[in-house]
Design brief:
- The radius of gyration is 18 Å and the shape is globular.
- The chain is built from eleven helices and twelve strands.
- The strands form three sheets. The chain has a five-stranded parallel β-sheet, sandwiched between helices. A four-stranded mixed β-sheet has the order 4-3-10-9, covered by helices on one side.
- Strand 9 and strand 10 form a beta hairpin.
- The protein has 309 residues and is α/β, with parallel strands linked by helices.
- The protein has two domains: 2-183, 3-Layer(aba) Sandwich (Rossmann fold); 187-307, N-(1-d-carboxylethyl)-l-norvaline Dehydrogenase, domain 2 (Orthogonal Bundle), CATH 1.10.1040.
Length: 309
């Protein structure tokens, strides 16, 4: 079985390295200076698990170079682990690597990725997915697996069969990625998005690690963001947790990833583009579609863009 991982940042690195512990053939699609380093040195992970694989363990393709013809339509599973703003481009790349009966999913933060993949690959080949594993890149060092979470999967109404989903989940569990199969793809995506919109912009604007958001005033601010997003999710017919349940879930995630620097703060520190458009701004736009207001999410999106356009 061949698995392609498109985008080898922090989450892509822990997924690819974990899959490398199984019998699966693992293909990495990389780009830029970091991708060239992976092609030369392989992958190193520390934290929850310490993993070290030489480059020879992987197949590689690079955005800037022609890829080997043998990679065409050869992957049983394609995992997009890229930034939200790269999903449309990587979906096109997936058409090159994915078998006609293969399966793809995106672990990128935000709303709309299932729809983007379905338009490009066909709904019968697309799963909804999200992850609560926490990781971050270290300068000139291994990727830090800072928090052990889960990798959730759900098929869509026109998506892969339950047997196909079980096969994917089995591989991910062989890789010790704690795969969980859920029944509601809309709820799966919104549950992760509500965590992201509550955590990421506040951590990014304050320069805070996840655990610092457990401070009472900051935690109350997280819950205010959640309340707006939850109202939109309900209008989208997502079966989302009530406030008490979400509060407990948020505390658990912040405690499990206490030392994690969220992806948006990593981007801010590096001067990179953030994913605010697919998160809080997407909540605002969907709120407007349903005749709702989301002023706190709008303020956070505006502040992130103003500080880090």
């Amino acid at each position: 079985m061949r698995v392609s991982v498109l985008g080898v940042g922090s989450i892509g690195s822990i997924v690819a390295s974990s899959l490398a512990t199984t019998a699966a053939e693992v293909h990495l699609h990389v780009r830029g200076e970091r991708g060239a380093k992976h092609m030369l040195e392989g992958l190193r992970i520390e934290g929850h698990r310490d993993l070290n694989f030489e480059a020879e363990r992987f197949l590689f393709s690079c955005e800037e170079l022609p890829h080997e013809i043998a990679l065409n339509q050869g992957s049983d599973l394609v995992i997009l682990a890229c930034k939200s703003y790269d999903v449309a481009h990587m979906a096109q790349q997936a058409t090159t690597f994915l078998k006609s009966d293969g399966i793809a999913f995106a672990l990128s933060n935000g709303l709309g990725h299932v729809e983007t993949l379905a338009r490009t690959l066909g709904p019968e080949r697309v799963l909804a997915a999200s992850t609560t594993h926490g990781a971050f890149m270290q300068a000139d060092g291994p990727t830090r697996w800072a928090g052990f979470g889960a990798l959730s999967l759900a098929t869509t109404p026109l998506g892969p069969s339950s047997a196909q989903v079980a096969k994917v989940a089995g591989l991910l569990n062989d890789a010790q990625l704690n795969a969980v199969v859920e029944s509601d793809p809309t709820a799966l995506i919104w549950n992760k998005v509500m965590l992201n919109v509550a955590i990421n912009p506040l951590a990014a604007l304050g320069g805070l690690k996840n655990g610092e958001l457990l401070e009472p005033d900051l935690f109350a601010s997280c819950m205010m963001v959640y309340r707006e997003a939850s109202a939109v999710a309900i209008m989208e017919r997502a079966d989302v947790p009530d406030e008490h349940e979400f509060e407990q879930r948020l505390r658990t995630v912040l405690e499990q990833t206490r030392e994690n620097t969220c992806s948006m703060l990593q981007d801010v520190k590096a001067g990179r583009r953030t994913e605010i458009e697919a998160l809080n701004q997407a909540v605002v736009e969907r709120a407007e579609h349903h005749g709702l207001a989301a002023p706190i999410n709008q303020m956070l999106a505006s502040l992130v863009r103003a500080c880090h356009p």
